[in-house]
Design a protein that fits this description.
The chain is mostly helical. The chain contains 4 helices and no strands. The protein is globular.
């Protein structure tokens, strides 16, 4: 999820245009996988979430090819702040462009 969140922060800075729902799908898929891991000791990512993760990883790869280093450092700082806080997600629940 760290990479997904970094991609989100960079997209917020203007580097990407993936729908917000893709980021939320990734979050929900990881939450479901963690729940299953705790209850059944089995790590499984929902099959329908795999293409979403692939798309977000491709986005982040493209971002790394063009984003200035100071923006990446800023996104990493935002990730650390999020992880140190109490918010459940840095991604909004509603697509602001919808």
């Amino acid at each position: 999820m760290r990479t997904v969140y970094l991609a989100w922060f960079l997209q917020e800075d203007g580097y990407g245009n993936e729908p917000v729902r893709h980021f939320k799908t990734a979050e929900h898929a990881v939450e479901a996988a963690l729940k299953l891991a705790h209850s059944a000791n089995e790590w499984v990512l929902a099959e329908d979430a795999v293409p979403v993760f692939e798309g977000l990883l491709a986005l982040h790869d493209a971002q790394l090819a063009i984003v200035p280093l100071h923006k990446i450092i800023s996104a990493e700082r935002r990730l650390r702040q999020f992880l140190a806080g109490t918010a459940s997600s840095p991604v909004p629940d509603v697509d602001p462009t919808a």
